[in-house]
Write a structure and sequence with these properties.
The protein is an alpha/beta fold. 42% of the residues lie in helices and 18% in strands.
Protein backbone atom coordinates (compact mmCIF):
# COMPACT_ATOMS: atom_id res chain seq x y z
CA UNK A 1 0.00 0.00 0.00
CA UNK A 2 1.42 3.38 -1.05
CA UNK A 3 2.30 5.79 1.77
CA UNK A 4 0.48 9.09 2.11
CA UNK A 5 2.55 12.26 1.93
CA UNK A 6 2.29 12.74 5.70
CA UNK A 7 3.32 9.12 6.33
CA UNK A 8 6.34 9.55 4.03
CA UNK A 9 7.54 12.62 5.92
CA UNK A 10 6.79 11.03 9.29
CA UNK A 11 8.99 8.06 8.37
CA UNK A 12 11.81 10.40 7.30
CA UNK A 13 11.57 12.27 10.61
CA UNK A 14 11.73 8.98 12.51
CA UNK A 15 14.85 7.88 10.63
CA UNK A 16 16.44 11.31 11.16
CA UNK A 17 15.88 11.23 14.93
CA UNK A 18 17.47 7.80 15.25
CA UNK A 19 20.47 8.85 13.14
CA UNK A 20 20.90 12.08 15.07
CA UNK A 21 21.09 10.24 18.40
CA UNK A 22 23.87 7.98 17.08
CA UNK A 23 25.71 10.94 15.52
CA UNK A 24 25.67 12.85 18.82
CA UNK A 25 26.98 9.81 20.72
CA UNK A 26 29.78 8.95 18.30
CA UNK A 27 30.95 12.16 16.58
CA UNK A 28 33.24 14.64 18.35
CA UNK A 29 34.34 18.09 17.17
CA UNK A 30 37.02 16.76 14.83
CA UNK A 31 34.58 14.25 13.35
CA UNK A 32 31.85 16.80 12.58
CA UNK A 33 34.40 19.16 11.08
CA UNK A 34 35.64 16.35 8.86
CA UNK A 35 32.10 15.70 7.64
CA UNK A 36 31.58 19.39 6.87
CA UNK A 37 34.81 19.59 4.89
CA UNK A 38 33.92 16.55 2.79
CA UNK A 39 30.40 17.92 2.13
CA UNK A 40 31.87 21.19 0.86
CA UNK A 41 34.58 19.52 -1.20
CA UNK A 42 32.22 17.30 -3.18
CA UNK A 43 30.28 20.37 -4.37
CA UNK A 44 33.53 22.20 -5.13
CA UNK A 45 34.90 19.27 -7.12
CA UNK A 46 31.68 18.90 -9.13
CA UNK A 47 30.94 22.60 -9.59
CA UNK A 48 30.73 22.49 -13.39
CA UNK A 49 28.46 19.46 -13.69
CA UNK A 50 26.08 20.67 -10.99
CA UNK A 51 25.96 24.18 -12.48
CA UNK A 52 25.08 22.77 -15.90
CA UNK A 53 22.26 20.67 -14.47
CA UNK A 54 20.91 23.63 -12.46
CA UNK A 55 20.73 25.90 -15.51
CA UNK A 56 19.15 23.15 -17.65
CA UNK A 57 16.51 22.23 -15.07
CA UNK A 58 15.52 25.70 -13.81
CA UNK A 59 15.96 27.55 -17.11
CA UNK A 60 17.49 30.54 -15.36
CA UNK A 61 20.86 31.96 -14.45
CA UNK A 62 24.31 31.83 -16.04
CA UNK A 63 26.35 28.63 -16.18
CA UNK A 64 29.73 30.30 -15.54
CA UNK A 65 28.31 32.24 -12.60
CA UNK A 66 26.78 29.12 -11.08
CA UNK A 67 30.15 27.38 -11.37
CA UNK A 68 31.76 30.30 -9.52
CA UNK A 69 28.98 30.23 -6.93
CA UNK A 70 29.38 26.49 -6.32
CA UNK A 71 33.12 26.93 -5.82
CA UNK A 72 33.11 30.13 -3.80
CA UNK A 73 30.24 29.18 -1.49
CA UNK A 74 31.70 25.74 -0.75
CA UNK A 75 35.07 27.33 0.03
CA UNK A 76 33.55 30.20 1.99
CA UNK A 77 31.22 28.13 4.18
CA UNK A 78 34.00 25.68 5.02
CA UNK A 79 36.39 28.59 5.77
CA UNK A 80 33.82 29.96 8.22
CA UNK A 81 33.13 26.62 9.91
CA UNK A 82 36.64 25.23 10.26
CA UNK A 83 38.12 25.57 13.75
CA UNK A 84 34.84 26.92 15.18
CA UNK A 85 33.65 25.14 18.34
CA UNK A 86 30.10 23.78 18.11
CA UNK A 87 30.05 20.86 20.57
CA UNK A 88 30.30 20.84 24.37
CA UNK A 89 31.66 23.83 26.31
CA UNK A 90 31.83 26.86 24.05
CA UNK A 91 33.00 29.46 26.52
CA UNK A 92 33.80 30.13 30.19
CA UNK A 93 33.61 33.77 31.23
CA UNK A 94 36.68 34.58 33.32
CA UNK A 95 34.88 37.24 35.33
CA UNK A 96 31.51 35.63 36.08
CA UNK A 97 32.43 31.93 35.66
CA UNK A 98 29.37 31.61 33.39
CA UNK A 99 29.72 28.44 31.31
CA UNK A 100 28.07 28.10 27.88
CA UNK A 101 27.41 24.56 26.64
CA UNK A 102 26.26 23.80 23.08
CA UNK A 103 23.38 21.41 22.45
CA UNK A 104 21.87 20.32 19.11
CA UNK A 105 18.25 21.20 18.33
CA UNK A 106 17.29 17.89 16.67
CA UNK A 107 15.88 17.63 13.15
CA UNK A 108 16.15 20.56 10.74
CA UNK A 109 13.80 21.16 7.82
CA UNK A 110 15.84 22.80 5.06
CA UNK A 111 13.56 24.46 2.50
CA UNK A 112 15.57 25.46 -0.59
CA UNK A 113 14.80 27.62 -3.67
CA UNK A 114 15.16 27.16 -7.41
CA UNK A 115 17.40 30.26 -7.63
CA UNK A 116 20.23 28.59 -5.65
CA UNK A 117 19.43 24.89 -5.98
CA UNK A 118 22.93 23.55 -5.24
CA UNK A 119 24.68 25.78 -2.72
CA UNK A 120 21.65 26.38 -0.49
CA UNK A 121 21.15 22.66 0.30
CA UNK A 122 24.93 22.33 0.72
CA UNK A 123 25.27 25.16 3.24
CA UNK A 124 22.26 24.03 5.27
CA UNK A 125 23.60 20.46 5.39
CA UNK A 126 26.99 21.75 6.53
CA UNK A 127 25.44 23.89 9.27
CA UNK A 128 23.41 20.90 10.47
CA UNK A 129 26.34 18.46 10.47
CA UNK A 130 28.48 21.04 12.28
CA UNK A 131 25.93 21.26 15.11
CA UNK A 132 25.03 17.55 15.38
CA UNK A 133 21.58 18.09 13.89
CA UNK A 134 19.93 15.84 11.32
CA UNK A 135 18.50 17.59 8.27
CA UNK A 136 15.84 16.89 5.66
CA UNK A 137 16.06 19.02 2.50
CA UNK A 138 12.81 19.95 0.74
CA UNK A 139 13.85 21.42 -2.63
CA UNK A 140 11.78 23.62 -4.91
CA UNK A 141 9.78 21.34 -7.27
CA UNK A 142 11.31 23.08 -10.31
CA UNK A 143 14.82 22.28 -9.08
CA UNK A 144 14.15 18.90 -7.50
CA UNK A 145 16.50 16.86 -9.68
CA UNK A 146 19.67 18.94 -9.39
CA UNK A 147 19.05 19.65 -5.69
CA UNK A 148 18.42 15.97 -4.92
CA UNK A 149 21.54 14.99 -6.83
CA UNK A 150 23.64 17.45 -4.82
CA UNK A 151 22.24 16.03 -1.57
CA UNK A 152 22.86 12.44 -2.69
CA UNK A 153 26.44 13.32 -3.64
CA UNK A 154 27.02 14.78 -0.18
CA UNK A 155 25.50 11.68 1.42
CA UNK A 156 27.82 9.41 -0.57
CA UNK A 157 30.83 11.58 0.25
CA UNK A 158 30.24 11.49 4.03
CA UNK A 159 29.26 7.83 4.12
CA UNK A 160 32.89 6.55 4.49
CA UNK A 161 33.17 8.73 7.61
CA UNK A 162 30.47 6.56 9.23
CA UNK A 163 27.90 9.36 9.31
CA UNK A 164 24.68 7.48 10.22
CA UNK A 165 22.26 6.88 7.36
CA UNK A 166 19.40 9.33 7.84
CA UNK A 167 21.45 12.30 9.10
CA UNK A 168 21.03 13.87 5.67
CA UNK A 169 17.88 13.20 3.63
CA UNK A 170 16.06 14.82 0.71
CA UNK A 171 12.42 14.82 -0.34
CA UNK A 172 12.82 13.34 -3.82
CA UNK A 173 9.35 14.33 -5.04
CA UNK A 174 8.60 17.61 -3.25
CA UNK A 175 5.14 19.14 -2.93
CA UNK A 176 3.50 21.89 -0.93
CA UNK A 177 1.79 19.27 1.26
CA UNK A 178 5.05 17.45 2.00
CA UNK A 179 6.89 20.67 2.78
CA UNK A 180 4.13 21.79 5.16
CA UNK A 181 4.15 18.39 6.86
CA UNK A 182 7.93 18.54 7.22
CA UNK A 183 7.80 22.01 8.76
CA UNK A 184 5.16 20.91 11.26
CA UNK A 185 7.06 17.76 12.36
CA UNK A 186 10.66 19.00 12.52
CA UNK A 187 12.31 20.83 15.42
CA UNK A 188 13.35 23.92 13.45
CA UNK A 189 12.84 25.17 9.89
CA UNK A 190 15.36 27.10 7.81
CA UNK A 191 13.39 28.51 4.87
CA UNK A 192 15.04 30.14 1.87
CA UNK A 193 12.80 31.17 -1.02
CA UNK A 194 9.72 33.23 -1.84
CA UNK A 195 7.76 35.17 0.76
CA UNK A 196 4.64 32.90 0.75
CA UNK A 197 6.82 29.92 1.63
CA UNK A 198 8.65 31.85 4.35
CA UNK A 199 5.32 32.96 5.84
CA UNK A 200 4.18 29.34 5.79
CA UNK A 201 7.32 28.37 7.73
CA UNK A 202 6.64 31.02 10.37
CA UNK A 203 3.06 29.77 10.77
CA UNK A 204 4.06 26.10 11.05
CA UNK A 205 4.06 26.15 14.84
CA UNK A 206 7.80 25.39 15.00
CA UNK A 207 10.80 27.74 15.39
CA UNK A 208 11.75 29.06 11.96
CA UNK A 209 14.42 31.12 10.28
CA UNK A 210 13.34 32.83 7.06
CA UNK A 211 14.46 35.48 4.63
CA UNK A 212 12.91 38.72 3.42
CA UNK A 213 12.52 40.17 -0.05
CA UNK A 214 15.50 41.97 -1.54
CA UNK A 215 15.57 45.37 -3.24
CA UNK A 216 19.15 46.54 -2.87
CA UNK A 217 19.62 50.29 -3.10
CA UNK A 218 23.16 51.49 -3.88
CA UNK A 219 24.35 55.03 -3.19
CA UNK A 220 27.17 56.57 -5.24
CA UNK A 221 28.95 59.25 -3.23
CA UNK A 222 30.89 62.14 -4.73
CA UNK A 223 34.69 62.10 -5.18
CA UNK A 224 34.95 58.41 -6.09
CA UNK A 225 36.18 56.51 -9.13
CA UNK A 226 32.89 56.13 -11.02
CA UNK A 227 34.34 53.60 -13.45
CA UNK A 228 35.39 51.38 -10.58
CA UNK A 229 32.01 51.76 -8.87
CA UNK A 230 30.09 51.14 -12.11
CA UNK A 231 32.10 48.00 -12.79
CA UNK A 232 31.35 46.57 -9.34
CA UNK A 233 27.65 47.47 -9.48
CA UNK A 234 27.21 45.97 -12.96
CA UNK A 235 29.15 42.87 -11.88
CA UNK A 236 26.68 42.43 -9.02
CA UNK A 237 23.55 43.25 -11.03
CA UNK A 238 24.44 40.92 -13.92
CA UNK A 239 25.63 38.01 -11.75
CA UNK A 240 23.60 34.88 -12.50
CA UNK A 241 21.22 37.06 -14.56
CA UNK A 242 20.10 38.96 -11.48
CA UNK A 243 18.41 36.18 -9.47
CA UNK A 244 20.46 36.78 -6.32
CA UNK A 245 18.28 38.40 -3.63
CA UNK A 246 21.21 40.59 -2.57
CA UNK A 247 21.84 41.81 -6.12
CA UNK A 248 21.91 45.53 -6.84
CA UNK A 249 18.49 46.89 -7.91
CA UNK A 250 18.94 50.68 -8.08
CA UNK A 251 21.81 53.16 -8.04
CA UNK A 252 21.44 56.66 -6.66
CA UNK A 253 23.93 59.19 -8.06
CA UNK A 254 24.79 62.90 -7.57
CA UNK A 255 22.87 64.97 -10.12
CA UNK A 256 25.80 67.28 -10.85
CA UNK A 257 27.91 64.25 -11.88
CA UNK A 258 25.23 62.68 -14.11
CA UNK A 259 27.21 62.76 -17.36
CA UNK A 260 30.32 61.36 -15.71
CA UNK A 261 28.33 58.60 -13.94
CA UNK A 262 26.33 57.59 -17.03
CA UNK A 263 29.43 57.46 -19.23
CA UNK A 264 31.16 55.25 -16.66
CA UNK A 265 28.20 52.86 -16.64
CA UNK A 266 28.05 52.79 -20.45
CA UNK A 267 31.77 52.00 -20.67
CA UNK A 268 31.18 49.04 -18.36
CA UNK A 269 28.28 47.54 -20.30
CA UNK A 270 25.12 49.43 -19.30
CA UNK A 271 22.46 50.37 -21.83
CA UNK A 272 20.18 53.28 -20.84
CA UNK A 273 16.62 53.27 -22.16
CA UNK A 274 14.37 56.29 -22.52
CA UNK A 275 11.12 57.29 -24.16
CA UNK A 276 9.27 54.45 -25.87
CA UNK A 277 12.07 51.96 -25.14
CA UNK A 278 11.79 52.73 -21.47
CA UNK A 279 8.10 51.89 -21.38
CA UNK A 280 8.67 48.72 -23.39
CA UNK A 281 11.27 47.46 -20.88
CA UNK A 282 9.21 48.41 -17.81
CA UNK A 283 6.09 46.74 -19.23
CA UNK A 284 8.09 43.60 -20.00
CA UNK A 285 9.62 43.35 -16.52
CA UNK A 286 6.35 44.12 -14.71
CA UNK A 287 2.80 42.97 -15.50
CA UNK A 288 -0.02 44.72 -13.62
CA UNK A 289 2.48 45.94 -11.04
CA UNK A 290 3.94 42.46 -10.42
CA UNK A 291 7.26 41.04 -11.56
CA UNK A 292 6.75 39.00 -14.75
CA UNK A 293 7.73 35.39 -14.00
CA UNK A 294 9.01 34.66 -17.50
CA UNK A 295 11.86 37.20 -17.29
CA UNK A 296 13.25 36.07 -13.91
CA UNK A 297 16.88 35.00 -14.27
CA UNK A 298 16.90 35.62 -18.04
CA UNK A 299 19.59 37.40 -20.04
CA UNK A 300 19.67 41.02 -21.18
CA UNK A 301 19.25 39.89 -24.79
CA UNK A 302 16.19 37.77 -23.90
CA UNK A 303 14.50 40.67 -22.08
CA UNK A 304 15.37 43.21 -24.77
CA UNK A 305 14.05 40.95 -27.53
CA UNK A 306 10.82 40.29 -25.62
CA UNK A 307 10.41 44.04 -25.14
CA UNK A 308 11.13 44.78 -28.80
CA UNK A 309 14.24 46.80 -27.93
CA UNK A 310 17.56 46.45 -29.76
CA UNK A 311 20.62 46.56 -27.50
CA UNK A 312 24.34 46.07 -28.31
CA UNK A 313 25.49 42.44 -28.08
CA UNK A 314 27.93 43.22 -25.27
CA UNK A 315 25.27 44.84 -23.04
CA UNK A 316 25.44 43.53 -19.47
CA UNK A 317 22.54 45.43 -17.86
CA UNK A 318 19.68 47.70 -18.88
CA UNK A 319 19.23 50.91 -16.89
CA UNK A 320 15.90 52.71 -16.48
CA UNK A 321 15.75 56.27 -15.10
CA UNK A 322 12.96 56.32 -12.54
CA UNK A 323 10.06 58.76 -12.86
CA UNK A 324 9.55 58.89 -9.11
CA UNK A 325 10.46 57.23 -5.84
CA UNK A 326 8.80 54.32 -4.05
CA UNK A 327 5.15 53.88 -5.04
CA UNK A 328 5.46 56.59 -7.71
CA UNK A 329 7.15 54.20 -10.18
CA UNK A 330 6.95 50.40 -10.40
CA UNK A 331 10.60 50.28 -11.48
CA UNK A 332 11.49 51.03 -7.84
CA UNK A 333 10.58 47.44 -6.90
CA UNK A 334 12.76 44.31 -6.95
CA UNK A 335 13.71 43.17 -10.49
CA UNK A 336 15.13 39.62 -10.58
CA UNK A 337 16.86 40.14 -13.92
CA UNK A 338 19.69 42.33 -15.28
CA UNK A 339 17.62 45.54 -15.19
CA UNK A 340 18.36 48.46 -12.84
CA UNK A 341 16.66 51.71 -11.88
CA UNK A 342 18.58 54.91 -11.26
CA UNK A 343 17.84 58.10 -9.31
CA UNK A 344 19.64 61.43 -8.88
CA UNK A 345 20.18 63.42 -5.70
CA UNK A 346 21.47 66.89 -4.82
CA UNK A 347 22.73 66.25 -1.28
CA UNK A 348 23.70 63.06 0.55
CA UNK A 349 20.72 63.07 2.94
CA UNK A 350 18.43 63.09 -0.10
CA UNK A 351 20.18 59.95 -1.41
CA UNK A 352 19.46 58.23 1.89
CA UNK A 353 15.79 59.29 1.75
CA UNK A 354 15.45 57.86 -1.77
CA UNK A 355 16.96 54.57 -0.63
CA UNK A 356 14.73 54.46 2.46
CA UNK A 357 11.58 55.17 0.44
CA UNK A 358 12.35 52.37 -2.02
CA UNK A 359 13.18 49.97 0.81
CA UNK A 360 9.90 50.74 2.55
CA UNK A 361 8.16 49.83 -0.71
CA UNK A 362 10.02 46.50 -0.91
CA UNK A 363 13.16 44.96 0.55
CA UNK A 364 13.13 46.59 3.98
CA UNK A 365 15.69 44.97 6.28
CA UNK A 366 17.68 43.19 3.58
CA UNK A 367 20.74 44.88 2.08
CA UNK A 368 21.98 48.22 0.75
CA UNK A 369 25.25 49.28 -0.79
CA UNK A 370 27.41 52.38 -0.87
CA UNK A 371 30.43 53.39 -2.92
CA UNK A 372 32.23 56.10 -1.01
CA UNK A 373 35.58 57.28 0.33
CA UNK A 374 33.86 59.33 3.04
CA UNK A 375 33.74 57.33 6.28
CA UNK A 376 31.26 59.77 7.84
CA UNK A 377 28.81 59.22 4.98
CA UNK A 378 29.31 55.45 5.14
CA UNK A 379 28.52 55.48 8.87
CA UNK A 380 25.54 57.79 8.29
CA UNK A 381 24.10 55.39 5.74
CA UNK A 382 24.65 52.52 8.19
CA UNK A 383 22.80 54.42 10.93
CA UNK A 384 19.92 55.72 8.82
CA UNK A 385 19.08 52.77 6.54
CA UNK A 386 16.90 49.96 7.91
CA UNK A 387 18.99 47.12 6.47
CA UNK A 388 20.79 44.19 8.04
CA UNK A 389 23.82 44.60 5.76
CA UNK A 390 25.45 47.67 4.22
CA UNK A 391 28.01 46.61 1.61
CA UNK A 392 30.84 49.09 1.10
CA UNK A 393 32.73 49.49 -2.20
CA UNK A 394 31.99 45.94 -3.35
CA UNK A 395 29.44 44.03 -5.47
CA UNK A 396 26.44 43.39 -3.20
CA UNK A 397 25.26 40.27 -5.04
CA UNK A 398 28.45 38.33 -4.35
CA UNK A 399 29.45 39.66 -0.92
CA UNK A 400 26.27 40.28 1.12
CA UNK A 401 25.89 36.53 1.53
CA UNK A 402 29.27 36.50 3.21
CA UNK A 403 32.87 36.86 2.14
CA UNK A 404 36.19 35.74 3.53
CA UNK A 405 37.22 39.42 3.37
CA UNK A 406 34.23 41.23 4.92
CA UNK A 407 33.49 39.29 8.11
CA UNK A 408 29.91 38.37 7.17
CA UNK A 409 29.31 34.61 7.60
CA UNK A 410 29.11 32.85 4.23
CA UNK A 411 25.56 31.60 3.72
CA UNK A 412 22.61 31.56 1.34
CA UNK A 413 20.03 32.52 3.98
CA UNK A 414 20.07 36.25 4.75
CA UNK A 415 17.96 37.31 7.71
CA UNK A 416 16.26 40.72 7.45
CA UNK A 417 15.23 41.32 11.06
CA UNK A 418 11.84 42.63 12.14
CA UNK A 419 11.98 45.03 9.17
CA UNK A 420 11.54 42.02 6.87
CA UNK A 421 9.39 39.99 9.30
CA UNK A 422 12.37 37.73 10.10
CA UNK A 423 13.63 36.44 13.43
CA UNK A 424 17.28 37.43 12.84
CA UNK A 425 18.94 40.47 11.28
CA UNK A 426 22.14 38.73 10.23
CA UNK A 427 23.45 36.01 7.95
CA UNK A 428 22.15 32.61 9.05
CA UNK A 429 24.95 30.22 10.06
CA UNK A 430 25.68 27.18 12.23
CA UNK A 431 25.30 29.05 15.54
CA UNK A 432 21.57 29.50 14.89
CA UNK A 433 21.13 25.71 15.02
CA UNK A 434 22.38 25.44 18.59
CA UNK A 435 20.57 25.46 21.91
CA UNK A 436 22.83 26.88 24.61
CA UNK A 437 22.80 25.79 28.25
CA UNK A 438 24.24 28.47 30.53
CA UNK A 439 25.68 27.26 33.84
CA UNK A 440 25.57 30.25 36.18
CA UNK A 441 27.32 30.15 39.59
CA UNK A 442 27.67 33.26 41.73
CA UNK A 443 31.11 34.78 41.31
CA UNK A 444 32.92 36.24 44.32
CA UNK A 445 35.08 38.24 41.89
CA UNK A 446 32.21 40.59 41.19
CA UNK A 447 31.60 43.37 43.69
CA UNK A 448 27.95 43.92 44.58
CA UNK A 449 27.50 47.70 44.87
CA UNK A 450 25.72 49.18 47.83
CA UNK A 451 22.55 51.18 47.25
CA UNK A 452 24.56 54.38 47.68
CA UNK A 453 27.14 53.30 45.10
CA UNK A 454 24.49 52.20 42.63
CA UNK A 455 22.23 55.25 42.75
CA UNK A 456 24.65 58.11 43.34
Amino acid sequence: MEKTEIEEISEMIKIARKAQQIYCQTFDQADVDGACKVAARVIYDNAEMLAKLAVEETGMGVYEHKVAKNRNKSKGVWYDLKDKKSIGILNIDEKTNLIEIAKPIGVVAGITPMTNPIVTPMSKIMFALKTQNAIIIAPHPKAKNCSALAVRMIKEAIKPLDVPEGMVQVVEEPSIEKTQALMSMCDVTVATGGMPMVKSAYSSGKPSFGVGAGNVQVILDRFIDYDLAANKIITGRSFDNGIICSGEQSFIYPRDHKEEVFEAFKRNGAYFVEGEEREQIVNTVFKNGLLARDIVGQSVQFIAKKAGVSVPQDTKIIVVEANGVGKEDVICKEKMCPVMACFHYDYFEEAIEIAKTNLFLEGNGHTAGIHSNNQANIIKAGIDLSVSRLIVNAPCATTAGGSIQNGLPVTNTLGCGSWGNNSISENFTYKHLLNITRVAPLSTRIHIPSDEELWK
